[in-house]
Amino acid sequence: MTAVQELNEGLNALLEQEREAMAAALLEEMEAKAWDEQIEADAKAGKLDTLIEKAKQDHCAGRTTPLV
Predict the structure, then answer these.
(1) Digit-coded pLDDT (tens) for 14-47
(2) Largest Cα–Cα separation, the chain
(3) H-helix segments, 1-68
(4) What are phi and psi of 15, to 5 degrees?
(5) 60, 66, 67, 68 alpha-carbon torsion, rounded to 10°
(6) Fewer C-beta within 10 Å: the chain N or C terminus?
(7) What's CA 42's distance to the chain center, in Å?
(8) Is 46 left (phi over 0), alpha (psi -120 to 50) or beta?
């Protein structure tokens, strides 16, 4: 039996609720990865520079509060 066949059998044996949870987790992971890649690309392209500078100015002016 091939690995693909074994995987298919295992997936078919899962309860519907378990399959839905697994699919949701996989989708969430894929979306998080895509988000991270987009943020990284935007940062490299300088699209976040204005926001970073504004945050630095606000912090230096005392307009921020600690997160913790």
Answers:
(1) 787 888 898 999 999 999 999 999 999 999 999 9
(2) 66
(3) 3-13, 16-44, 49-60
(4) -70, 155
(5) 150
(6) C
(7) 15
(8) left
As a whole number of angstroms, the distance between CA 59 and CA 51 comes to 12
Q: Where are the domains of the chain?
A: 3-60
The amino acid at residue 33 is K
Report in angstroms the alpha-carbon separations of 49 from 42, 52, 54, 56: 9, 5, 9, 11
CB-CB contact of 60 with 52 (8 Å): no
Residue type for position 11: L
Distance of CA 27 to the CA centre of its chain: 10
Report the predicted TM-score, pTM, of the whole model to 2 decimal places. 0.58
User: What is the amino acid identity at position 4?
Assistant: V
